[in-house]
Structure formats: structure tokens, C-alpha cells
Design goal:
This protein is mainly alpha-helical. The protein contains 28 helices and four strands. The strands form two sheets. The protein has a two-stranded antiparallel sheet with strand order 1-2. It has a two-stranded antiparallel ribbon with strand order 3-4. Strand 1 and strand 2 form a beta hairpin. The longest helix has 41 residues. It starts with a helix and ends in a 5-residue tail after the last helix.
């Protein structure tokens, strides 16, 4: 079969000779202790230090609450440092090789890793990821840092486990990697299908971002903007495909430009508030002002004590278990999810060139170079990530100052108007934000606009940040345009990845049967893939009404539950067989899908069926049962709280569905390990 044919190539290229230097001498492997040290440091920085956040927040570090500072600033920087540490360790393991010792080649490799690291960072931090992170940090404060830490941790997990698994293999896609390592057509198709589901969720997140910008710019409904966003993405990907290498370059340029614009926007707020232009160093003072304004708004009855969540206080939106579960799911999921994106269209790691077969051949033994590229990727990702808490903090500070004035409902801020009837913003529960409608609806509030009267989707935060700060219209236009372009590039990149994976799966079948596909057939397949994925993603956005970070978390959880075990375990344990891997992927997918669908779309039934292991108190479950019996077959007004109560009660051990991989991943690992002992791989 095709897989066995290429398996022999892998054996020839990565067998005993790959462990020898140019003189034929056996290369020394790094000691296990040195390999374990970065992993222990990662666990401490990514998880352990955040257990003491309550105690650390009482300490002050250059204007920052220490606990918040460690999670928002220090932890991402230290995680990026660990990525460089791992890269240097891999570089030392190849030091005996004369080709690596060559100064000229070393300089070329360093430049190559820097360029690919920048390109990979643009693909890793797509428009949806940046917009989603900023929104969740604004909405959840400290708890939102779990998503940021999970993304940074993914790069360390990738350096430790995934890059070594892909290095020195002749595969050019995730699909081919599974085929080469397992020689199973069924597993290859299953892997491509699972990756397709992950990409649909990510594509839905990118379309959501584009639709938000279109909603604001054109003053249309979000649903209409979603369909328009899908059409624009299709046109954009068709246009950029005329020049093959424009996507990696465009994403890299877009990510740098977005970082510059975000820094400029928050820097202007920092200068206005504290006469200091670097927001990453000054927003600690903004955090303390937010704490004071929270108390002021409560005293003036401009905020609700029940709904207001303190920005600095942890464990308000979810407990410590969920905090670490979200970090784990994003870390293990994103470590394998953006493989094709990180590899720049070639599933060799980022140190391999997609455009030159000669360059690829020269870097066949390139675990060190791949790790270097990933380390530079972590560096550029870190620069952007540590800026987002500042953007969110200054946006919240400016909004709180505006509300505390107070504002009359008859003279609403200008940023309300573009979102009228869009469904993305509600005031007093109304989507019609006209003054006449709100005056009658909010008449019991003495004409004042209160904080809890304003509800907007977190994905709109970045586009609203300049408005909150009363910045010039040019800043609003530039920021919206850059986010729009980065999201279009990200959506186009996901479509090209989907088409490439499908082509790889079909090519495997063609080679095994001896058939060759024509250029016309390949073009039709690619076009059908683009349209099919866009239709699926668009329908999902219009039907689910979820924010981007939820979609991204679901996608990461699915990848962690299915792809991570079969990729990493097969690299660490060569005994793993194809039947065990297939069963593990099916088991992980089943648990993931059941938990997501059950807790989201069938929450009342799920809560009652699993009440024995739900974290909901007994009185809440009893009230839920009573409401279900009372509201069965009716839509009485007093039953409106049923869905909210069911959503709060539907869980296993209190875990949010964004972290569903915390159940699905162990299930997949148990199935994989158990069946491997029963059905070991044939030698």
C-alpha cells in the first residue's frame, strides 16, 4: 500500500544513519534529565504558580497586583523562554554534526528559522484568536487569562512532543503522517475527517469576526453580515490562490500590523490616563482604578452587585479546576491543531521550506532548526498576547468612567448606533437601540444608563475599544480594517489547509489503486471543499450564536481528544497499532461530541440524567425538575428561566463544555493503551 511504500522511505531516512554525524560517528542523545527539566518548568509556570493567585494579588509589583502580573505578563514570557530552552537543547544534541558547525550554514538556518517563525506566528494567532482573547479578557478579567495561558502553553507542548514526532518524516500533511506511521487507510480517512470538524469550528470563528466588522461598518444585521462574510472569504481565497505564497506572507504582515495598531490604540489611552506611552507597563495602575470604579458604580446604583464581576478577583466565572482544565485543553489541542499552518503548507516543521525541494533536502535532519523556528513563533506570539490584557483593561476603565458620569438614555454614546438591530448589542434587553424605544423601555431607571443595562458580544470589544476612549475616527477605521483583513487571511488559510488535507487523503487512495487524478478533477475537488466548508461554517454561526473563543475552545478540545493521542503516543511508543488508534479516536470523538451537544442543546435532559455527578446543589436540581414538569409543552413566561437553570446544572463535576477534552482525552488514552496491549503493532 501507499503507506507501506513511504514507511520504507521513512525507515531509510530516519533509521540508524539519522543518528550519525557526517563522520559516521554515533550522535549523543540529550540526557533524559535535561529533557525532563523543560517539562517540569512548563508545569510549574503554566499551572502551579496560579494556585496562589489570591495571596499574590495582595502584593504589588511596579503598580501591578502580583498574581495578575504573573499570569498576564510573566508566565507568557517565561513560556516563550522555555521554547527557546528546548530549541537550544535540540541544537546541542546536533553539535557533533559538521554541517551544523559550519558558520555559513548556521547563519542561513538562523535566518530561515526566524522567517518561518514569524510566518507561523501569524497563522497561530489568527484574527479570531486575537479578537476572542481580547473579548474574554474584558468579560472575565483574571479568569479569562486561562485562555491566554493555554495558547502559550500549546507552543511549549508542541516543542516537547509534536515537533520531534514530525521531524525527519517524509509526510507533507497530517493525513500522510497518520498513513506513514500506521499504514491504515481507515485511520487516515478518520484523521482527515476529524481535522475537518476542527477546521470548520475555526473557520466559523473567523467568519464571526468578519461578520462583526461588517455589521458595524454597514449597519446591517449580524445574520446578513455572516452570509456576506462567507462570500467575501470565498472570493478572497480564490484571489489569493492565484499567487501561492501570499497567504503565509500576508498573515505574518497582518499579525505585525495588528500588534502595532493595538499597541498604538492602547498606548494612546495609556498616555491620556497616565502620561506614559507603553501600555504593557502602565495598565497595572488602570487595574487598580477599575477596582475603585467598581465600588463607585455600586455606590451610585449604576451597577448591579449580583451581575458585576470584579476584574481582578479570580474564580468568579469558573473555579480553579475549570481554570486549569481550559489551559490543558487549549495546550494539548492547539499543539496539534495548527500543524499545517505552522508548517507553511508543508507538514514538515516550520524549519522546512515549502517552496524549494532542494532546501527541504538540505534540512532533512532538522529537529534543531524546527525547534528554533517554533521558538521564534513563541516569541512573536508572546509580544501580541501580553498586549491584549492592556487593551482589555484600558477599554474597561474607559467604559466605567463613561458610565459613572452618568449618561442619560436620551443622549447615548455614538458607539451604540452602529449596532442597533444587529443582535450584537442589547440595552435594557432591547436590540432596537433607538432613543424613543429605550426611553420607554428603561423609564424606571430615572433616565440613567446603568452598566448592567448594556450587554454586547465579547467579539465586538476590539472594534469598540477606540470608541470607549473617544479616539479619532481614523483609529476606529484602521483597527477595524486590520482586524477584517487578518480574519480574511485566517479564514482563507483554513480553507487551503482543508483542501490540502482532503487532497492528501484522496491521493493516498489513488496511489493505492494505481489511478491518477487530472488537473480538472483536483480543481473541482478544491472548489467543492471551499464551498462545503464555508457553507457548514456559516450555518453553524447562524444557528449557534456562539462567540469566537467558545468555538476555538471546542475545536481545541476536539483536537486534543482525537489527534493528540494518536500523534504523540505513536512517537513515544512504537508498539501502538492502527486498530488501537482508530478506536481511541472514535472514543475521544464520542465523549467530546456527547458532552458538547448534551450540555449545549439538551441541557435539561442532560442535567437530570447526570444529576448524580453534577456540581449543581440539590435545591437547584429539584427546582429544575419542577420547572421541567411545569413547562412541558408550553412556553409560559415564568418558564423563561428554565434554559438558564438547565445550562448551569448540566455538567460533569462542574467542568464547562469548553474544557470537554478533560474527559475525552483520558478516555482516548485509556482505549489506546489498553487495545495496544491486546493488539500490538506488527513488526
Amino acid at each position: 500500500m501507499w503507506g507501506k511504500k513511504h514507511l520504507s522511505i521513512q525507515s531509510a531516512s530516519t533509521g540508524k544513519n539519522s543518528n550519525k554525524n557526517s563522520n559516521g560517528e554515533q550522535k549523543k542523545s540529550p540526557r533524559k534529565g535535561r529533557a525532563l527539566a523543560p517539562f517540569i518548568a512548563f508545569l510549574f509556570i503554566g499551572f502551579a504558580v496560579h494556585l496562589l493567585v489570591h495571596q499574590l494579588n495582595f502584593m504589588n509589583l511596579e503598580g501591578f497586583p502580583l498574581g495578575f502580573y504573573l499570569a498576564a505578563q510573566a508566565a507568557p514570557i517565561l513560556l516563550a523562554t522555555i521554547a527557546f530552552w528546548i530549541a537550544s537543547r535540540h541544537q546541542l544534541s546536533l553539535k557533533a554534526d559538521e554541517s551544523v558547525e559550519n558558520d555559513g550554514k548556521r547563519v542561513r538556518n538562523a535566518r530561515f528559522a526566524l522567517k518561518n517563525g514569524l510566518s507561523a506566528s501569524g497563522e497561530f494567532l489568527s484574527g479570531a484568536v486575537i479578537v476572542g482573547l481580547a473579548g474574554v479578557l474584558f468579560a472575565q478579567g483574571y479568569d479569562g487569562l486561562a485562555y491566554m495561558l493555554g495558547l502559550m502553553s500549546a507552543l511549549v507542548v508542541m516543542s516537547l512532543f509534536v515537533v520531534p514526532a514530525f521531524a525527519n518524516t517524509p509526510s507533507r500533511s497530517l493525513t500522510q503522517y497518520l498513513s506513514i506511521n500506521y499504514s491504515s487507510r481507515m485511520l487516515t480517512v478518520l484523521g482527515a475527517t476529524t481535522l475537518g470538524f476542527c477546521l470548520i469550528l475555526l473557520l466559523a470563528a473567523e467568519i464571526t469576526v468578519v461578520a462583526v466588522i461588517l455589521t458595524r461598518s454597514l449597519a446591517i444585521s449580524f445574520q446578513n453580515a455572516t452570509f456576506l462574510a462567507a462570500v467575501l472569504t470565498l472570493l478572497f481565497v480564490a484571489m489569493v490562490n492565484l499567487k501561492r505564497n501570499i497567504l503565509p506572507a500576508g498573515l505574518a504582515l497582518g499579525s505585525i500590523l495588528l500588534l502595532v495598531v493595538l499597541s498604538l490604540q492602547s498606548g494612546l489611552s495609556s498616555w491620556e490616563q497616565f502620561s506614559f506611552p507603553l501600555p504593557q507597563f502602565s495598565y497595572g495602575h488602570a487595574l487598580y482604578e477599575i477596582v475603585g470604579l467598581e465600588q463607585t458604580l455600586l455606590e451610585k446604583e449604576l451597577a448591579d452587585a449580583v451581575t458585576m464581576k470584579q476584574h481582578l478577583r479570580p474564580r468568579l466565572h469558573f473555579d480553579a479546576v475549570n481554570f486549569f482544565a481550559i489551559i490543558s485543553c487549549l495546550a494539548f489541542g492547539f499543539a496539534v491543531l495548527p500543524l499545517r499552518a505552522l508548517f507553511n503548507g508543508n507538514s514538515r516543521p516550520a524549519g522546512f521550506s515549502p517552496s524549494s525541494d532542494k532546501a527541504t533536502d538540505e534540512t532533512t535532519v532538522s529537529l534543531a532548526q524546527s525547534s528554533q523556528a517554533l521558538a521564534w513563533c513563541a516569541f512573536f506570539v508572546c509580544l501580541t498576547i501580553i498586549t491584549l490584557p492592556a487593551v482589555s483593561a484600558f477599554s474597561k476603565l474607559n467604559l466605567y468612567k463613561t458610565i459613572s458620569t452618568p449618561i442619560s438614555i436620551s443622549t447615548l454614546p455614538s458607539w451604540v448606533t452602529p449596532f442597533s438591530n444587529s443582535g450584537l448589542m442589547k440595552i435594557c434587553g432591547q436590540t432596537d437601540l433607538s432613543t424613543s424605544n429605550l426611553t420607554s423601555t428603561c423609564s424606571d431607571q430615572e433616565g440613567r444608563l446603568r452598566l448592567h443595562d448594556i450587554v454586547f458580544q465579547p467579539d465586538t470589544l476590539l472594534s469598540l475599544a477606540p470608541d470607549f476612549a473617544n479616539q479619532p475616527s481614523i483609529m476606529i477605521l484602521v483597527l477595524s480594517l486590520v482586524i477584517f483583513l487578518v480574519a480574511l487571511f485566517g479564514g482563507s488559510r483554513l480553507l487551503t489547509i482543508a483542501a490540502a488535507e482532503l487532497k492528501a487523503a484522496m491521493t493516498q487512495e489513488d496511489l493505492s489503486s494505481g489511478n491518477k487524478r487530472t488537473t480538472k478533477e483536483n480543481t473541482l475537488t478544491t472548489s467543492a471543499t471551499y464551498i462545503g466548508f464555508l457553507v457548514a461554517a456559516t450555518l453553524f454561526v447562524t444557528m449557534s450564536n456562539l462567540n469566537t473563543m467558545t468555538l476555538i475552545s471546542w475545536s481545541a478540545s476536539l483536537a486534543a481528544s482525537t489527534l493528540f493521542p494518536v500523534i504523540v503516543v505513536s512517537h513515544l511508543w512504537t508498539r501502538v497499532s492502527a486498530p488501537a488508534a482508530i478506536s481511541a479516536m472514535i472514543a475521544g470523538f464520542a465523549v467530546w461530541a456527547y458532552y458538547i451537544i448534551g450540555t449545549t442543546y439538551f441541557a435539561p435532559s442532560f442535567a437530570i440524567f447526570w444529576q448524580a455527578i453534577s456540581s449543581a446543589p440539590q435545591w437547584q436540581l429539584e427546582e429544575l425538575i419542577s420547572l421541567m414538569a411545569k413547562c412541558s409543552g408550553s412556553d409560559v413566561g415564568e418558564c423563561s428561566s428554565l434554559s438558564t437553570l438547565a445550562y448551569e446544572s448540566a455538567n460533569w463535576l462542574g467542568i464547562q463544555n469548553s474544557a470537554s477534552a478533560i474527559f475525552a482525552l483520558p478516555t482516548a488514552l485509556l482505549v489506546l493503551i489498553g487495545l495496544t496491549f491486546l493488539i500490538p503493532r506488527r513488526t
